[in-house]
C-alpha cells in the first residue's frame, strides 16, 4: 500500500522529496508495528482490508520519527537499518521535509475514503489515537524528556514514564486502533488489550537497551553503543544487564496473560510479544 501511495513522482519539484520518503519508509525495517495492527485485528475478527490503512499510517509515523531522531540536532546517527540515515543519503533539510511529509501522510491515509472504509466516528477515533501517540502526549514528549535525562540519575518510575511515551505510545496505538474498529469489543476486552500493549511497549524499550550493549553494529543495522555514547538513561544502567533481561521477560509474560480476556486467536499477538524480547536488532 505504501509503495503505491509513494509512487515515484516525475515532477522535478517533488521527485527528490518522494525519493527521500520512499528511502525512509520502504527500505528495510522489521515492520513490528504494522504486524501488531494486523495481529490485533485478526484476534478481533476484523478483515485485513480494514487494517491496511491503520497499518500504513503507523508505519509512516514510525518512519518519520526515525528520520528526525537521526538528525544531527537529535541523536546524530549516520546508520539506520544497515544503510546511511536519510540526512546522510540526502541532506538534513530534505530529511526534515521527508519526515514532515510522512507524518502528514499518515493522517491523509486515515482520512481518505480511498484507503479506509469505516464509520465516520471510527475514523475520528483512529485519528485521535494516532495523534495522541505521535504528539506532545506521546512520542515527541518522550523524545524531549529522553534528551533532557541524558547524564541524569533516574528512578525506574521516571524511566518508564519516558519510554511509555517515546516507545510505548505508538505500539499502544497499533493495538488500540484495531480495537476502535471492532464494534463488539467490551470494556474488559479493551482494557486487556491496553494492558497488553502497555507491557510490550516497555518490554520493547528494555530489550532495545540490552541489545545496544550486547549486539554489534552489523547486526543492529545502526551504531552499537549509541546509548552509552550519549550518556542516556537505560534499564541496564539502572538495574544491571541481567536484571534488565529478566524484567523484559516478566513484562512480556504479563502482556500475554492480559490476553486471556480476548476470545479470538491471540497466538499471533503472543508470537510478536515473544519476538520482541528474543530479537538481537
What does this 3D model show about the protein?
With 281 residues, this protein is mainly α. The chain has one domain (2-140, 155-278): Farnesyl Diphosphate Synthase (Orthogonal Bundle). It contains 16 helices and two strands. α8 (139-148) crosses α9 (156-166). The longest helix is centred in the last third of the chain and has 28 residues, at 187-214. The radius of gyration is 18 Å and the shape is globular. The mean pLDDT is 92.
How is the topology of this model organized?
Blueprint: H1 2-5, H2 12-26, H3 32-43, H4 48-69, E1 79-80, E2 83-84, H5 86-89, H6 92-111, H7 120-134, H8 139-148, H9 156-166, H10 168-180, H11 187-214, H12 217-220, H13 226-229, H14 235-239, H15 241-258, H16 267-278
Antiparallel strand pairs: 1-2
Helix pairs in contact: 2-6, 3-4, 3-10, 3-16, 4-6, 4-10, 7-10, 8-9, 10-11, 11-15, 11-16, 15-16
Question: What distinguishing features does this structure have?
Answer:
281 residues; mainly alpha; Farnesyl Diphosphate Synthase; two-stranded antiparallel ribbon; 16 helices; 2 strands; 70% helix
Termini separation: 25 Å
Structural domain tally: 1
Number of strands: 2
What would CATH call the homologous superfamily? Farnesyl Diphosphate Synthase
CATH class membership: Mainly Alpha
Mean pLDDT over all positions: 92
**Uncertain residue segments:** none
Strand order of the largest sheet: 1-2
From the 3D coordinates, which CATH architecture would you assign? Orthogonal Bundle
Please give the share of residues in helix: over 70%
CATH topology label: Farnesyl Diphosphate Synthase
Describe the largest sheet.
2 strands, antiparallel
Q: What does the overall shape look like? A: globular
Which band does the percent of strand residues land in? under 5%
Rg over alpha carbons: 18 Å
Q: Treating each run of at least 4 consecutive H or I residues as one helix, how many helices? A: 16
Amino acid at each position: 500500500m505504501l509503495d503505491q501511495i509513494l509512487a515515484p513522482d516525475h515532477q522535478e519539484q517533488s521527485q527528490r522529496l518522494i525519493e527521500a520518503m520512499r528511502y525512509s519508509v520502504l527500505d528495510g525495517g522489521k515492520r513490528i508495528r504494522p504486524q501488531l495492527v494486523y495481529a490485533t485485528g485478526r484476534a478481533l475478527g476484523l478483515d485485513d482490508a480494514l487494517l491496511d490503512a491503520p497499518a500504513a499510517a503507523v508505519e509512516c509515523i514510525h518512519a518519520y520519527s526515525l528520520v528526525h531522531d537521526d538528525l544531527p540536532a537529535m541523536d546524530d546517527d549516520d546508520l539506520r537499518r544497515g544503510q546511511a540515515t536519510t540526512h546522510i543519503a540526502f541532506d538534513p533539510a530534505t530529511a526534515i521535509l521527508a519526515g514532515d511529509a510522512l507524518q502528514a501522510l499518515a493522517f491523509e491515509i486515515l482520512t481518505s475514503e480511498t484507503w479506509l472504509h469505516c464509520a465516520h466516528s471510527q475514523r475520528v477515533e483512529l485519528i485521535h489515537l494516532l495523534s495522541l501517540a505521535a504528539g506532545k502526549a506521546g512520542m515527541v514528549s518522550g523524545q524531549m524528556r529522553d534528551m533532557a535525562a541524558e547524564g541524569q540519575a533516574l528512578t525506574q518510575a521516571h524511566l518508564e514514564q519516558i519510554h511509555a511515551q517515546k516507545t510505548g505510545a505508538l505500539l499502544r496505538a497499533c493495538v488500540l486502533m484495531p480495537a476502535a474498529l471492532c464494534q463488539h469489543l467490551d470494556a474488559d476486552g479493551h482494557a486487556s488489550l491496553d494492558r497488553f500493549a502497555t507491557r510490550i511497549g516497555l518490554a520493547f524499550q528494555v530489550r532495545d537497551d540490552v541489545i545496544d550493549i550486547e549486539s554489534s553494529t552489523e547486526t543492529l543495522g545502526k551504531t552499537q553503543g549509541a546509548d552509552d555514547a550519549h550518556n542516556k538513561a537505560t534499564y541496564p544502567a539502572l538495574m544491571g544487564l541481567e536484571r534488565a533481561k529478566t524484567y523484559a521477560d516478566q513484562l512480556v509474560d504479563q502482556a500475554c496473560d492480559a490476553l486471556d480476556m480476548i476470545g479470538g486467536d491471540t497466538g499471533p499477538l503472543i508470537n510478536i510479544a515473544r519476538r520482541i524480547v528474543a530479537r538481537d536488532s
